From TrEMBL:
Membrane-crossing residue ranges in chain numbering: 73-101, 134-154, 160-180
Name this protein carries in UniProt: CDP-diacylglycerol--glycerol-3-phosphate 3-phosphatidyltransferase
Chief site of localization: membrane
Organism for this UniProt entry: Gluconobacter thailandicus NBRC 3257
Statement: the UniProt record of this protein carries the keyword Ligase: no
Source taxon at top rank: Bacteria
Enzyme class at the top of the EC tree: transferase
Length: 200
């Protein structure tokens, strides 16, 4: 049910998006620090919703659908906000574009597979991808302003975030390619006529 605590936590992750964008739009050290706090709380729900659902045996198709959607909305919205605020260093705007393209492709593939009554289960590599992206975005949200406000002037937060975003491109592309090949193989297996045409 939508009111189950794991699903509520997932919805809170989505609800945090406009709050985060508003805090970043303040262009202030205090706003960045507050955004880091809200973002950390939002990211923690990504672990809690799944852990609680498994512990309380509240796993559902709704939860399985909403969890990756919430992750994609959080990552996608913040990447767009950071790009709009021009705080993406070391050409990491291009990393953000690659990430967004991958997410759109996989979402479209999942939708098509669902229409064929097929599923694409999440992989461990995809979870690593999400984890690295979230850490990178956390550094970018805080940035150098938050580092100075927290007396961490030695920490080049923005640069670290940009580098981590580029690092996340590796599992992003590899997991996306894995989903694509798995989806195509399932489609071919479900349609013997297509398989025979390819073999011939």
């Amino acid at each position: 049910m939508l009111t189950d605590l794991p699903n509520v936590l997932t919805l809170l992750r989505i609800a945090a998006i406009p709050v985060l964008v508003a805090l970043l739009a303040l262009h202030s050290a205090l706003g960045n620090v507050a955004a880091c706090v809200v973002y950390t709380a939002a990211c923690s729900t990504d672990y809690l919703d799944g852990a609680l659902a498994r512990r309380w045996q509240m796993l559902s198709e709704l939860g399985r659908m909403m969890d990756p959607i919430a992750d994609k909305l959080l990552v996608g919205a913040l990447l767009l906000a950071l790009a709009g605020l021009t705080v993406l260093p070391v050409f990491s705007l291009y990393a953000a574009i690659i990430i967004m393209l991958r997410e759109i492709l996989v979402s479209g593939l999942r939708e098509y597979m669902a229409s064929q009554r097929e599923t694409l289960p999440s992989t461990r590599l995809a979870k690593w991808k999400t984890g690295i992206q979230m850490v990178a975005i956390g550094f970018l949200i805080g940035g150098d302003k938050a580092a100075v406000a927290l007396h961490l002037t030695f920490l080049p937060a923005t640069l670290i975030g940009g580098i981590l975003l580029w690092i996340s491109v590796i599992p992003t592309v590899l997991s996306g390619w894995g989903y694509l090949t798995a989806g195509l193989s399932r489609m071919m297996a479900s349609d013997p006529r297509k398989s025979s045409k390819i073999v011939s």
